[in-house]
Structure formats: structure tokens, C-alpha cells
Amino acid sequence: EGGAPGRRGERERSEEAPAERGPGAAFHMFVLMEDLLDKLKLLSYEEEALRRHNMRPLSRHYFALPTNPGEQFFMFCTLAAWLISKAGHPFEQPQEYDDPNAVISNVLSELRSF
């Protein structure tokens, strides 16, 4: 019982200030992105998803660094649509200028149906 409040306090501080979680916490997103890229490569995303839409392959840190939010969102939507289709659920490829809220709503709705 005596240790629980201390742990709770530590958890609250870590949620507020990510730097207090440890020296490697700032780089965790880069590790996740590299893992994602490895998994996409295993699924042949370059041949199946990118070539069809004439897109460049992702860099190792593409989603880890906010460089061009519109382009990154469209890439995310393209990959999400491709993965949903690859899982056996027909899903229409979103267009670059579609309403972002509608696209995300469609993706989430399709994922809920799994």
C-alpha cells in the first residue's frame, strides 16, 4: 500500500514530461518506425502499394519526424487502405484531396468490422 502512491506519482510525471522516462525515451518513436518499415517490407509494400500509386519508398524515420503533415497523412491513408485490402476486406483507395475526417472515419469503421 505504501508503494502505490509513489508509483502513481511517478506515472503521472512520466506522462507529463517524456524526458523523465529515461534517456532513450526520446528515440522510441524512431525504433517503432524502423520496426514498422521492416514489417511493411516483409509484406512487399514497395511493389504492391507504392508502385501502383507512383510513390517513393518510406525513409527509416518518415512518420517519426513531422516534415509534411499533408503528405504524411496521405501516405498513412494509402498504406491503411492497402493493408485493409490485403487483409481481405475491399477498401477504396482514398484520394489526396478527400476530407481527412471522412477518410479516417472510413478506415476506423472498416477496422471495427474486422
From TrEMBL:
Keywords: Cell projection, Cilium
Example GO biological process: non-motile cilium assembly
Domain of life: Eukaryota
Localization of this protein: Cell projection, Cilium
Coiled coil: none
Bias kind Basic and acidic residues: ranges: 7-19
InterPro entries cross-referenced by the UniProt entry: Intra-flagellar_transport_57
Membrane-spanning ranges: none
Residue ranges of the region described as Disordered: 1-22
Entry GO CC: cilium; Golgi apparatus; intraciliary transport particle B; microtubule organizing center
PANTHER family registered for this protein in UniProt: IFT57/HIPPI, INTRAFLAGELLAR TRANSPORT PROTEIN 57 HOMOLOG
Entry's family note: Belongs to the IFT57 family.
Protein name per UniProt: Intraflagellar transport protein 57 homolog
This protein's encoding gene: Ift57
